[in-house]
Hints:
By secondary structure, the protein is α/β, with parallel strands linked by helices. 39% of the residues lie in helices and 15% in strands. Strand 1 (24-30) and strand 2 form a beta hairpin.
Amino acid sequence: MTRRNGWCLSLLVALAVSLSACGGTNPSNPSRSGKPQVTLTLMGNQEWVQKPIIVRAIELYEKQTGNRVEVQAFPIDTVDTLIRKRVAMGEISDIVIHFGGAGLSDLQPENNFADMSGERWVADLKPAIVPRLTYKDKIYGLPLWESSIGGMLYNKEIFEKYDIPVPTNQAEFFDACERLKKVGIIPVYLASKDTWPLLPQYGIDFLVSKVPDLVESLNSNRIRFADIPEFRRMLEWYMRMKDGGYFGKNVLNNNWDSQPAALANGKYAMAMAWDVYLYTDLEKKFPGTADKFGIMPNFMGGPDAKQFEGPNAAMLMVNKNGQHLQDAKAFIDFVSQPEILNEIYRDLYTETYFASVTSNKLTKQYEEAKSLIDKYLYPSVTPFIVGYSQNEMGKLVQQMMIGSLSIDEAIAKMDDNRVQAAKQRGIPGF
Length: 430
């Protein structure tokens, strides 16, 4: 999950000026160790590099070592393409932030990134996260990331004011939307202009309950999205929400940056997001607002759809062919120390992927909904689907909502995108 702020524009300007920069050494300005100061480069999504976890890690490293980290931020809607191009050109930064799973194959990790399977910190990882980092039985990155639960955030005060019960199933959810609409409150804020926040992956996670071998079947071309009735019902949910006015009249102009204000001022009652968002985005901009919200399941899909999305983790990977290989590995070793990890996560509202970290906090929303979360939590599966792109999927959902594509046409294009990507990678069966 991701966020945006204005200072990234200056980073992008700097990146445009020196796109191929891969770090350097300044012998006239020694580091704390007495060695020449090193400048490492780190590239990633412009949202990700601003996460408190990443910012704190860099600040601690720079303060205690005297070295520097130059951040190269890419726009969220083109980051995957740009990083793939940089990899193809051999112009990778010293450190790259990227998700694991099937999408990692585009970066050819065995040729470009250091195998970290034997590093000290691997033993500190909680077992549940290891499969999400592993590619062909190897770990290529440190999961320095937040751990959040995706669902439907809702304004408890609005629901209480209008005596609307918190929905427990899809029928009750649509009823709540209708009642909210009648009292002049737009039920759900959807940042559809930016495409990636359309979040169809929430519904895809639920498909595993209908097709247990979903990922394996898609990746071997035994089935396609078009073959799964529940997949179509997921897209029908978007259209019912739009046609019913439950996203509001201006849904196609809503962007991600405007969501905090839309929720804080009470114009909208709900939004699809994750529990940690309330503290990293909403509370940060509108202090005192986060506690007004709870989290319920998403009801995206058929009548029985009911799901929370489990956490996913991006990781810090080291360019094994870079000029500063050892220094970049030393950065990972530094931030992965238990005492440093605890400083990084101190008082942040998030779970962590490290057994040694105890300084973090769980969100109030997670604790209040824990029994439901335990029952209806589905792991995030889309990172493991070959050819799946959150941005491209979002664009097709957007085109469907605009009316440029029918539901069936959107599904066909979604399948075509996956199949084309699989063929390009030489995946058997395509």
